[in-house]
DNA sequence: CTCCCTGTCAACCGTTCGGTGGACGCCCGG
DNA sequence: CCGGGCGTCCACCGAACGGTTGACAGGGAG
């Protein structure tokens, strides 16, 4: 019997997962948590075999909760989320998730992924696997520096370079340097495209 | 007994809703649909009292499905969605939805909203109501014209005005006119802010 | 029928941006 | 200890952008 803990801030989703998993004879839901913090605490208390973890949550998010859980436990973590942005997927895998499923998964997908995770295997939804391959194939993993993100966030609000410089207590020249470096990393050539692609990759906001 | 139809493209969510609603003695789930088209068909076939409708779906979305349903049926539609962008809320209410709930709603919230909708009342989640008030209080409802959206979408991709003009077979001057009008409507003064606020209001992509 | 919105185009001007080519100090890791 | 990434700064140039004003045609609403 595989013991599963559900971590999701939506009661509806928890209820749905519970219903689907309890219908499988070899799976049992031993607990639910509505936040990342609660998920960590419940894992410590219940020592489940597998945690089904939502990514987007208020407070401690799924990635953070996964990292914490794996520091003290052999519990497997399967990430279950609605969206599949490149950055989310990469962060989850880096944090040590044993699987990445989307919420449109069927009962069979879910159960299969949980059993695989319990056996120590890693399962990715097909579309997720493709995106991950794209990430890995790209040799230079393009992470924006904290400062670059800071500048881009202000650009997204429509600030001019001079305004951004004043806001961050740096000169306009420095702002431009940050932006040009960000352009290179994002493979774009203007600020608007930089903002949209950074958002698409989950690097902003 | 209030007869409810579930329309959501996520099996997990449908399962969760079914579980929560079946626990209420006066509610019964008479059917499920995984798409807008199917939702319309099922409503026609089953004539439920209330449809619980997800907004974001592939194909015919929740707003479109709601509009169609209300043309031929007295069925009440309660919108249930994860996100609350201003444009989504307004579109759903304009389409004739009797309620707007978020997926973090509790079982009591859900059941209460369905009962209210069945009685002919309108229920909005508190945060949704606030946003709607903001929309209505703003006298000039700022809807971007189709052409303006088209231009903004290309701006979001980093195209210059001249490139956009060539792509849309208009001159750069016209592109600038569209953009300036969009700036006015969105209350911004540069293209980047225009794109981000348009996205935030759900007017883009 | 008239008004307003939309879509189209034009010219001009000042400001901002993007590109280039530097420069310096810091810190981390090989 | 030395390379490289990061954060900071400077100067210059051409291109792009934002603001303004003005214009005209078509269509839907009052």
From TrEMBL, chains A, B:
**What are the BP-aspect GO terms?**
phosphorelay signal transduction system; regulation of DNA-templated transcription
Residues covered by the HTH luxR-type domain? 137-202
Q: Which residues does the UniProt record annotate as the domain Response regulatory?
A: 3-118
Q: Which InterPro entries match?
A: CheY-like_superfamily (IPR011006), NreC/VraR/RcsB-like_REC (IPR058245), Sig_transdc_resp-reg_C-effctor (IPR016032), Sig_transdc_resp-reg_receiver (IPR001789), Tscrpt_reg_LuxR_C (IPR000792), WalR-like (IPR039420)
Q: Which UniProt keywords apply?
A: DNA-binding, Phosphoprotein, Transcription, Transcription regulation
Residues with the 4-aspartylphosphate modification = 54
Q: Which GO terms describe its molecular function?
A: DNA binding
Is Secreted a UniProt keyword of this protein? no
The protein's matches in SMART domains, at most eight in alphabetical order, are given as: HTH_LUXR, REC
Keyword field contains Transcription regulation: yes
Pfam families from the UniProt entry? GerE, Response_reg
What is the protein named?
A: DNA-binding response regulator
